[in-house]
Amino acid sequence: MDRRYFIRNSGIAVAGFGMALAAPESLQNIVSAVSANRGSSKKTLVVVFQRGAVDGLSMIPPYGEKNYVSLRRGLAVPRPGSEGGAIDLDGFFGLHPSMSAISGLWRDKSLAVVHSAGSPDNTRSHFDAQDYMESGTPGVKSTRDGWMNRLLQSDPKQNATPFRAVAMTQQVPRTLVGRYPTVAMTNLQTFAIRAGSYSNSVSGGFEDIWKLEAENRLGETGKETFEAIEFLKKSNPSQYRPSNGARYPAGRFGDSMRQVAQLIKAGVGLETAFTDTPGLNWDTHANQANGDGSRGQLANLFRNFGQTLGAFAADLGPKMEDVLVVTMSEFGRTVRENGTRGTDHGHGNAMLLFGGGVNGGKVYGEWRGLSSSELHEGRDLAVTTDYRDVLIEVGTGFAGIQDSSKIFPGYKISRKLGIFG
Question: What CATH number is associated with residue 81?
């Protein structure tokens, strides 16, 4: 496999890719030139996957539901106004108090919630559920590519940079696998390249591959982007300071989102970004809370999660008008707490969307309640909104895709939510 075939036909996994961004005028001139000539969209979709199955009934507690406390006597998040109480959203739903860092996004109507959302497949396997959600074809294991890669395929840009689609992960995630070339990275300092697991190692390094491809396909745009990346690579990471007083929490998830923000601000052509939440274990089978749902293990996870998302929004400031963040998880957790003060694998869950074009300040979806007759298999929150309905609106309302059937083959939207007006 020669280098030209490799870059054109497979995803590039760039290990150790972090971003350092100084702000001298010379850098701004380079970035401006790249932005002016690369011909790609200014919009960026950022997908955050909460692997492990987050408890949506704690993240967005339905404190107005009469059965909520009785089913979760030791885990229920207290009502707004109580000690450790939820942050009120609409008089029925609340936001976990540890996620106060994004409450301002709700007040500004740039944050929306979709409750009782998820995959229609009934599996309780993390592996299968994640595979189905990332492929976009629930129940079908033979799908070869992911829905995010198909999103890119549906709108190919011949002059897009190789940084159009980036995952802040060690390997290209299932959702970005496919014909469209994608990049996985964690730290810019090492800037090492690996071939895919089914190809020989690529010799010559990333710079040689980029230069070859720039000459053959990207032309001057590729050369200018390469110069910008070279400049950024030589910068001192300690020189970067997030804007607007933003402070990312320590840890891998905070680092991932900080680097996504830096790539957006660097103007290297990023349109689609993916990260999971490394270091945050949402699979809370035991000791989920300490005292009540506002304290303990899960509360600490929500604090890091909320502070990271809040820092990302603050860091980008006005640029958030062209950036959309979508969060999802493979399934929710059981409505009833178990015998070890935790919750087990469930079904329905909650998704968050904030940023460009979101008609926020509203909880979307059909809420059927937590009575036994309404629970999925008598134990779980029912899925009343297929997560693909949400993502179709993301594709059409934010990304400007005209034909969603290419993203989710064989599926037609069943519930129009109106998240983008």
Answer: 3.40.720
